[in-house]
Amino acid sequence: MVKVIVQMYPVIPAESEEERINLRPIGRNSEKYQETLRGWCDIIEAADGMGIWGATAIEHHFHSEGYEVSPNPGVLNAFWGARTKNINIGQLGYVMSAANPIRVAEETAILDHLMEGRTFVGFSRGFQSRWTNLLGQHIGTRSTTSDGGNDDVLNREIFEEAIEIVIKSWTQDSIEHNSERWQIPFPYADGHRGWEMVDWTNKMGAYGEVGSEGELRRISVVPAPYTKPHPPVFIASNSSQETIEYAGRNGFIPAYFAKSSQVADFGPHYTKEASNAGYNFAPGQNQAIVRMPRIANNLEDSREDIARYDGMIFKHFYQNFLPAALKSKANVQVDTPLEDLVDPMLSTGLFMGGSVSEIRDQFLEQWRHLPAEYVILIYHYAQQPKESVINNLKLFMDEVKPALDELTQY
């Protein structure tokens, strides 16, 4: 059975580019954000009632333009968890190249307890320099375009080390770690001295925390997660095979923000790497495909929805981060009408347009190349109204998912 995850990239809505300019900075408009936040929760509750497997929030900062206003996914997760009964709640994800890994381990473990295991955790690398570089400045982070350059290599090192610390924190009663960026405890070489509770820590704390001279040699991160050994881990992946292989070696779930042709290539690489690490996954198992379907009565109506709901964020935001080949197809100018961007959006392979039967056929074609255990559906709520998102989700669950379930063995 395919596990469906709804992921909304929260967009503070505006009727036009002109209104977005007139309301600048719309990202700080408290009234509009409040409306977006409340409707967002309504969608999560509706998804829970539909039997959707999961819901995610993202982590992005400083979006004064009103796009992807979601700076703290953990807080949203706790709010959603309190208002739902069955749906799994998570993030895709914490940007680990600019995060404190111990704080992330603590926060996600608490979320796992609050929801009694209805959780998953997602990690991503950070591609936006405006905030990745700022928040990660103390550890030297640079945003990445997955180009193999020096910044990309550095970003990956920081990212993977941070996740290593999170996993240690989740799974070990006490941890130690020593690198250029992180000393646990601090300082590492001689241990932390002067801890006022050392005698009691030595009697009550984790074994090995206190050394022979009363110095701290290890740190115990509390609480341990509710889920054993830890919640499922998702890794966001755009165009990097190295990220796919990293996910495979660790048994993490890669989320493919990629065209069908790339996914078809990534899948076997993932399965091979996972097998070499001792995981026995069938083709597509433990993998997630990301899509942005816009279901309407017909293709023409769907194209209008794509222009209205997704055109502004593509024009002002996404197209600036596209690979060169796709960016040239867009040929975006200041005065480019949003309806002229529909074909470039569809050419990314992420956006999908058409009637429910046409969307179903597009998904079935992907599943014939590579099925997936998870499908992540992205919506630009509240630029796309709440009622439209809920209706799209219902159509997908009623008309598309059953056809995919027939092709999915796990």
What does this structure look like?
- It is a single chain.
- With 410 residues, the protein is of the alpha/beta class.
- It has two domains: 3-172 and 222-312 and 348-405, TIM Barrel; 174-219, no CATH class.
- 44% of the residues lie in helices and 12% in strands.
- The protein contains 14 helices and twelve strands.
- The protein has helices at 17-22, 30-50, 73-82, 101-114, 129-135, 150-171, 198-204, 241-250, 260-276, 299-316, 324-330, 342-347, 356-369, 386-405; strands at residues 3-8, 54-57, 88-91, 94-95, 121-124, 177-178, 183-184, 233-237, 253-256, 288-295, 351-354, 374-379.
- The strands form two sheets. Strands 1, 2, 3, 4, 5, 8, 9, 10, 11 and 12 form a ten-stranded parallel beta sheet that branches.
- α3 (73-82) runs parallel beside α4 (101-114).
- The longest helix is centred in the middle third of the chain and has 22 residues, at 150-171.
- The N and C termini lie close together (6 Å).
- The mean pLDDT is 95.
Question: What's the number of helices?
Answer: 14
Globally, the shape reads globular
Q: Averaged pLDDT, please? A: 95
Number of strands: 12
Helix amount: 40-55%
CATH class descriptor name of the largest domain? Alpha Beta
Order of helices and strands: EHHEHEEHEHHEEHEHEHEHHHEHEH
CATH homology superfamily name of the largest domain: Luciferase-like domain
> Strand share of the residues?
5-15%
Radius of gyration: 22 Å
Q: Termini separation (Å)?
A: 6 Å
Domains, number:
2
CATH domain fold name of the largest domain:
TIM Barrel
